[in-house]
Structures are given as C-alpha cells and as structure tokens.
Write a sequence for this structure.
DNA sequence: GCTCCTTGGTAACACGTGTTAGTAATACGT
DNA sequence: ACGTATTACTAACACGTGTTACCAAGGAGC
C-alpha cells in the first residue's frame, strides 16, 4: 500500500506502529496516514502474528457448559477492557473433541485464561508455543491461581451461613446436569470441609432427571434430621423449596435453604431465597491487566477486594426449629 | 523440523497435508510422521493462514448479552461439529468498543456466522478480506438469512396459541434488561403483527428495575381487559404469574401466560408455565455444513425441520374466563 | 575543507508455511 | 540401445509484515 503513497514499506511500518526510536517528518507521517485512510488499509493479522510470534487474541477457555449469570457478565466486561488495550477476546467452550492443543493449532494467542482445568500436556504445549497462561478459576499444573475466587469458597460460605444460625445437620444438593460437575463438585467439597471444621453433620444428594423425585429426596433429608440445605444454585434451591412445601414443610421454619447466584428466580420465590452473590466487577479489571502485560492498559486496580463472594440473607434461612 | 528427519521441507508439507497428487514412498512417509511425533511438531497456524489466506477459525459473532438456554446448547453442538471438520470455533460477544472490523484485524477466520445484525461497512470489510459470511439470526445487508428461525416467529407462535384458546385481548411483557432488546423487540413485533392478522387487541409493557412494580403493571393489564399474556421468557412469565397471584387473580382462570425457553423455572412454577421450546439440534448440523464448505464434513442433513420452535402446553394457559 | 553527528529514509533479511516447477533415478515399450 | 513415462523428491518463490543495518543529506565544530 505504501508504494501508492510514494514512500517505502518500512516507513509505513514505522508510522503505523509509532516506533519510538524512529525519525519521521510530520509531512511524511501525515501522507502515510492519509493514504492508509483512503485505501482502507489495515495490516494483515497473520503476517503480523507470524513475525512477532503472537497475535492480538486473548483466548478464553471455558468449561463445557452454557454461560450464564455473573460469569457471563464478567466475560462481557473483560472483553470490553481488553478491547481498550487493543486485544480481541475470543471465547472457546471446552469440548470433548478439541483440547487446548488442538485450539493452539488454529491460532497463537497472546494469552490464554483458563477457567477450567488444564492437563500437564496442554500446559506444556502452550508454554512451548510461548503463550502467556493465566489460571483463573481453572487449575494449571505449576501455575498460581490468579482468581480471588475458588468454587470451594462458595460452598464454605453457604455452610458458614447456616452454622451461624445454629444449624447442626446440613446437606448439599447437586443439580442433575452432570455438565455442571466441574462447578458443583468443588462447591460441595468446600461445604463438606467447612462442615467438618465446624463439627456439623454433612451429607449430599444429587437431583435426578425426574422433577417429581425431588420431593422424595427432600423428604429423606428432613426425616434424617437435616435442617439446613445448601443448593448448587438458586434454581436448585427453588426446586428444594417447592418440594418442601409440597411435603407440608414450611421454609424456613422446618428447613433453611441457601442458593447461589442472586438470580431473579430466587428473588421472586416465596419465601425469597438467601443466596451467595458474586462481585466480579473488579475481577474483570484485574484479569485484563494480568493479560495485557506490556500493553497500554490502565494500571491494575490497586487493591484486591477482600471478598468476591458475598452472602445475601433473605427469607429462606432462619435458626432451626424457629428457635 | 523436516531437516532433522533427513528429508526436505516440501516433503514434510506434502505428507502432513496428504497432498492428493503427490508421490511419497511409504517409508519416507512413516519417517516424517515418526519425526513429527517425537519432536511434537505442529505447523504454525499463522504461517499457514498467511499463505492460504484464511485460518481455521470460525468466528461466532454474538449479541451483547450472556448466553444461556437453548442457544447456549446450540453453540456447544456447533463447536463440536466444526471441530470434527478440523475447524476451531471461537465466540465473540458483540461489544460497544470493537465491531467486526476491529475483530478482523486480529485474525482472518474461515467464516463468520452473524447472530446479530451487521452494518454495511462491516459486511463490506469482511467481503474484502475474503471472509465467508453467514447470516444466522442476524441481518447482513445483501445476504440471505440462513436461519430457520426468526425471533418474530416466536412472538407469532405465542399469540397464535392464545388466540387458539379464544383470547381476544393479549399483551406482551418485555424484560427490564435492555441488553435483551435485540431479542425482545422482534418477538414483540412478531406478536403484534400476528395479533393484527387475527384481529386481537394488543399492547405491550416493559418491566422495570423494581420487582415490586410488576404487580402494578399486571394489575393495569387485567383491569384493561387483557386475558392473555405473552412473556419474553419463562423468567418474565414467572414474575407475571407471581404478580397475578399477589393480586388475588388465579392463573390460568383470570389470566393465561405463555413463556419462552422451556426452562426449569417454568416447569417448577405453580401452575406450570406454557412455553415455546427451541429444537435447535438439527440447526447445529446445518450451520456447521454451511460453514465448512469444501471441508470433509458429513453432508448437510437432508431436510430442514419444518419447525424449529414448538409450543409446549402446560397449566398456565386456558380459555379466557374458564370458558 | 574535513570530520562528526543528527535527521529522514530505505534495502534486505526473517518469520514458517503452501505451492509450482524442475531434477534425478528407475521402469517400460519397441 | 533409445525415447518416454512414472516415481520420489527438492530448490526456490511468495504470503505481508517487523526489524536491523545501512545510506544520503545537511549542519556544527575545528
């Protein structure tokens, strides 16, 4: 394109990249910019990536499940922050067919943020390709977890909330959908740990495909003396509440329920459902800064928020047996 | 890498790409594959893309909102299908900062499927770069809509369902979240059109941020004689049902409600909520075939399903006034 | 006038691949 | 024995960019 502007290709490169040490007269500079504008010229991303060794892409590796709730919002914000730094964010949902090794044969991103666990082979492959790896909610062998948030902490907070009200027998209710196992299992394990620390009785059950069977499951829990239930999310919490009500039990008098996500369904439920809310607004900034190292991005927000998860007390929890 | 296998680079390229017209002895072929395996060699995606003019990426351009429900499932399936064809699917949520023009400066994908509307400038830019554009649920100036699904059809189906039961005054209830406008407006407009065709009275209201105000909105609807409500989705439908019940109205006797998405909340609601379900399983195949033209993908599924949306009758709808 | 330094710019290499054209060796037909 | 066809392979170019090394012109210092 430069040739059409009466100047060498090198000069164009210098102008467009604002090369620090280069000496370009203002007139030439303007001529180049003018020509680029009229021709609609943009550099080839592949050639640039080939030469520099990495592209402008930040790959967001997600677990194999539909994105919704607070995490969806985080992705949106992260994408916007990265765009300001000149980086383009792509998402890629984890998939049975192609792992990170396969994906990296389609592009060489500037960075990969792992929101799901990576195998040592995947990590090694990315490292060999010179790809910047960031573990955020996902575990990468040999890398520190950059997330202020562990799924197990969610479970721990739920149990702590119930324990604070005096409950001594608690249970965790998992969703039917096994796609969610990657999220639900750590939450349950965190809850289990916390219950053990506090000396509470703990058990867990998983919902089945059949909606009607939830009633039986909840009946089993209450008859065994459980007074507090941690649900995987507000949707599961809602179905537990419904089942308890079908059984003639009253929430929270006979059974306290804690959900996760602070979603509309929990707010509209009767009684409204105590839940765990995510405060991910600052995390998006932090992550962006972490990914765009060496880019012109506003400095990483000074302090990490002490807690990225927060309990939202509502009507579905109370001391056991209307103490 | 080839040099380490005692063979020329060209031969490596021929072997790894299974070049049709090439003559390679079996021993050499094995030697190359062996060397590639031991060295862990994979071709540079950028160099390949630079040479061939396009990469293995299928970019999925999404509207600016969190993905959930049936569309999330579709994306997952599409990604798997494309992976089988050797293509890697990335998603990119529409963003205020970077439009398609910006994105295409980070990579040159094999194809872009537009699930949101594109400006003429964006379409022209993609065309100039030789990117295969497919309009699926999104409008691209000058391109045919490949989706068997229009959002307006959802609204039309909802109104038709209510009309079939004898309702003569219907209303559309939109969600508060304006991020969803891209989806909700076409649904409302389709409903409006259908109502006009059938000679029904039609109006629409939008929920506000304040959950409590929903009661007032629903009260207004019923006092004005509305007997049937089409909700943007099951969540909105649920909140309408709750509001009606708070007002002492009975569903479906005093008010029929139709949602969208066939989600858990609608199934668990009392009464359960009549909804519109999406059958997108075949669409994923069709889309994949459309995107992977010239690739070794199983042929496009023979027949298009007649209907990709389907009404699921449940307890929240009945003839008006318990006819 | 000669050398040295700064300003403004360019020629040429390298990135790693796909592809075309070409070469050496062997087989085949007569 | 000679021309032709086939097999097996390779040299060399091109893709579009970033970057290093180099060159020309003009002024400053002596």
């Amino acid at each position: 394109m430069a040739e059409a502007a009466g100047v060498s290709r090198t000069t164009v490169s210098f102008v467009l990249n604002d090369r620090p040490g280069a000496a370009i007269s203002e007139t030439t500079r303007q001529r180049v910019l003018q020509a680029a504008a009229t021709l609609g010229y943009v550099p080839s991303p592949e050639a640039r990536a080939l030469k520099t060794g990495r592209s402008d892409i930040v790959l967001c590796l997600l677990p194999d499940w539909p994105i919704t709730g607070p995490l969806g919002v985080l992705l949106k914000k992260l994408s916007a922050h990265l765009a300001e730094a000149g980086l383009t964010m792509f998402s890629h949902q984890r998939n049975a067919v192609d792992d990170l090794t396969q994906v990296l044969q389609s592009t060489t991103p500037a960075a990969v943020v792992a929101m799901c666990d990576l195998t040592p082979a995947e990590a090694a492959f990315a490292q060999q390709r010179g790809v910047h790896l960031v573990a955020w909610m996902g575990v990468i062998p040999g890398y520190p977890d950059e997330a202020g948030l562990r799924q197990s902490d969610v479970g721990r907070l739920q149990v702590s909330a119930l324990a604070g009200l005096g409950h001594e027998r608690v249970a965790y209710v998992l969703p039917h959908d096994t796609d969610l196992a990657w999220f639900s299992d750590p939450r349950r394990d965190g809850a289990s740990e916390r219950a053990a620390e506090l000396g509470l009785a703990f058990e867990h059950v998983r919902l089945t495909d059949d909606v009607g069977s939830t009633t039986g499951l909840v009946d089993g829990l209450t008859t065994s003396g459980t007074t507090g239930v941690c649900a995987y999310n507000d949707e599961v919490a809602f179905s537990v509440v419904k089942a308890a009500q079908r059984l003639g039990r009253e929430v929270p008098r006979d059974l306290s329920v804690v959900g996760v996500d602070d979603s509309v369904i929990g707010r509209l439920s009767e009684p409204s459902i105590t839940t765990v809310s995510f405060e991910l607004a600052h995390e998006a900034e932090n992550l962006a800064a972490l990914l765009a190292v060496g880019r012109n991005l506003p400095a990483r927000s000074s302090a990490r928020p002490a807690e990225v998860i927060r309990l939202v007390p509502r009507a579905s929890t109370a001391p056991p047996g209307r103490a």
